[in-house]
């Protein structure tokens, strides 16, 4: 298989006319591409953009046999021939004698009210799950926790090193 370096190609009027002639003669896309100095995919793309008749598939065709005639393209139906389908709302379907509308989904459960923590209350959590619960004892000035919770939360660096060892 021969590989060729990618190069840009502008389709000149002469090359386009030659493509039309070679296409009408029935040459393959590879042969047309070699004659024009482009790849077969460039030939296929240009033929499609020019609106040339589509080529039949060469699969199953043996050398020396003529290519089968191209299949005609299907003509799309106008949209007005198609019926318009509209979904009914559940209330409309119920009014027409069909099944009753589904009940509304249940509302999600509301969490129990948690202790509201202000600036003067300890904000140290006392549980691991929701709803969050907090200590609520009087907080140390300029700290979010009470004295007992500060001892747990704020540990000197040397103690953390001792615990890690």
Could you please describe the fold and organization of this structure?
Among the domains are: 13-50; 116-165, no CATH class. Helix content is 32%, strand content 0%. It contains 6 helices and no strands. The chain has helices spanning 13-25, 29-36, 40-50, 90-95, 147-153, 157-164. The chain is elongated. The two termini are 68 Å apart.
Short description:
This protein is mainly α and 165 residues long.
Strand content: under 5%
* Helical residue percent band: 25-40%
Low-confidence stretches: none
Largest sheet: none
**What form results from the Cα inertia axes?**
elongated
Total number of strands: 0
- If you average the pLDDT, what whole number results? 76
Structural class: mainly alpha
Rg, alpha carbons:
40 Å
Could you spell the SSE succession in H and E letters? HHHHHH
Distance between the termini: 68 Å
């Amino acid at each position: 298989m021969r590989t060729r370096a990618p190069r840009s190609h502008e389709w000149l009027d002469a090359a386009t006319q030659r493509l039309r002639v070679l296409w009408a003669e029935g040459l393959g896309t590879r042969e047309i591409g070699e004659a024009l100095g482009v790849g077969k995919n460039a030939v296929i793309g240009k033929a499609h953009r020019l609106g040339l008749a589509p080529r039949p598939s060469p699969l199953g065709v043996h050398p020396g046999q003529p290519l089968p005639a191209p299949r005609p393209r299907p003509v799309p139906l106008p949209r007005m021939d198609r019926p318009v389908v509209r979904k009914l709302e559940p209330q409309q379907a119920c009014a027409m004698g069909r099944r009753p509308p589904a009940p509304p989904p249940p509302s999600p459960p509301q969490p129990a009210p948690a202790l509201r923590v202000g600036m003067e209350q300890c904000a140290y959590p006392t549980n691991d799950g929701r709803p969050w619960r907090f200590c609520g004892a009087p907080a140390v000035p300029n700290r979010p926790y009470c004295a007992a919770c500060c001892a747990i939360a704020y540990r000197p660096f040397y103690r953390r090193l001792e615990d890690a060892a």
